[in-house]
Design goal:
With 377 residues, the protein is an alpha/beta fold. It folds into three domains: 73 residues, Winged helix-like DNA-binding domain superfamily/Winged helix DNA-binding domain (Arc Repressor Mutant, subunit A, Orthogonal Bundle); 126 residues, ATPase, nucleotide binding domain (Nucleotidyltransferase, domain 5, 2-Layer Sandwich), CATH 3.30.420; 147 residues, 2-Layer Sandwich (Nucleotidyltransferase, domain 5), CATH 3.30.420.40. Helix content is 38%, strand content 22%.
């Protein structure tokens, strides 16, 4: 085998071991051999190197099956850190996570963005505060991921258009890269929330729609375990599906988008207002039925196009919605769907009700770090 291929194989095997620790740790060497399919010799060689590099550490002993107790190993959470944030229409939240996905620090600031420069300055100040407070070297940081509402050019790190933030063709990566040496990435926030389910929630699902409702409305589409972004990163703009050609005006400038149509019944774009209004909404009332009807019609169109296996509700809604809400949506989708199109499509609440964008961003960042060879989290 050529030297380059040997190095690639070693990195792939190392990535496999790290992923196994993240999913199932702590583990013994025998567990790793059984779970990964790698040979005991390969496991021992790689684990010894990872212990030497302080990436893996001993955390205890397992149950004995007759002989010596097996040594349990796990990732050393202090080996590296990830910065992951969410820029919503209401605030900036940036968290520091270790490589075991523990949030060790988080700063949230409610802010109005009077100028583009102020947004970059605020992000920079929060990152610097986190680094300083936690006495971190930037060499320890594997990367930064920011989830942002809108159409994102992931390749060059720019916001192509965000109606919620009123930004267009605005670079995030370039100005921040002047201040920080680690990789900087941006992604649509709902795409990251969708990824959080793959990593921390409904891991068995391969094709699903993640629907964020409040403090905005958008969707992340996972097809064959990967984010579907479309040709220019514009896929999943669920809130801008046209529902009424002469309907209420949207922040994007058009009339009749789903977001303003739904906001006639429950305000979508402010978290606290949404929570209060939704709690006061009586199932069976005209407002409730209209809200659920429009939502179900839009989701039915998605199902007919994508043939997904599940719809996962996230955002503020998942914190307060009852089981009846999910069953009502399911019934309405069945009503509006073509025969046999809705078979076995599950309507589910998100597994994470807090920090879902941040957790998805951390997963993406870690799985695109120096330890991995794949492109997605």
């Amino acid at each position: 085998m050529k030297r380059g291929n040997i190095k690639l194989m070693k990195k792939m095997n190392t990535s496999l071991i790290i992923r196994e620790f993240n999913n199932n740790g702590p583990l013994s060497r025998a567990d790793l051999t059984e779970n990964t399919g790698l040979s005991p010799t390969t496991i021992t060689t790689l684990i010894d190197e990872m212990i030497k590099d302080n990436l893996i550490m001993k955390v205890g002993e397992g149950e004995s099956s007759g002989g010596r107790k097996p040594i349990l190993l796990d990732l050393n959470p202090k080996h590296g850190y990830i910065l992951s944030g969410w820029i919503s229409g209401e605030s900036i939240s940036i968290a520091l996570l270790d490589i075991k996905y523990n949030i060790t620090d988080i700063i949230e600031k409610e802010i109005i963005f009077p100028t583009d420069q102020n947004l970059i300055l605020e992000i920079k100040n929060i990152i610097e505060e986190i680094i300083s407070t936690n006495n971190l070297s930037t060499e320890k940081i594997l990367g930064l991921m920011l989830g942002i509402s809108g159409i994102i050019n992931q390749q060059n790190g720019t916001i192509k258009y965000s109606a919620l933030l009123d930004l267009e063709n605005f670079s995030i990566r370039e100005p921040l890269s002047k201040h920080f040496p680690f990789p900087i990435n941006i992604e649509n926030d709902t795409n990251l929330a969708a990824l959080s389910e793959k990593e921390f929630g409904h891991k068995h699902l391969n094709n699903y729609i993640y629907l964020m409702i409040a403090p905005e409305i958008g969707s992340g589409i996972i097809i064959d375990n990967e984010i579907y972004r479309g040709r220019f990163g514009r896929a999943g703009e669920f809130g801008h599906l046209l529902m009424e050609k002469d309907g209420p005006r949207c922040t994007c400038g058009r009339k009749g988008c789903l977001a303003p149509v739904l906001s006639q019944y429950i305000p979508i774009n402010k978290a606290q207002k949404f929570r209060n209004a939704f709690k006061d909404l009586e199932p069976g009332s005209k407002k409730y039925e209209k809200f659920c009807d429009y939502l179900a019609i839009a989701l039915t169109n998605y199902i007919h196009l994508i043939d997904n296996e599940a719809i996962i509700f996230g955002g503020e809604l998942v914190k307060i919605a009852s089981e009846k809400f999910y069953s009502d949506i399911e019934e309405k989708i069945m009503k509006y769907s073509m025969k046999n199109m809705y078979d076995n499509v599950k309507v589910l609440p998100a597994s994470l009700s807090d920090n879902e964008v941040i957790m998805g961003g951390a997963s993406f960042c870690f799985h695109n770090s120096k330890y991995f060879t794949n492109k997605e989290g």
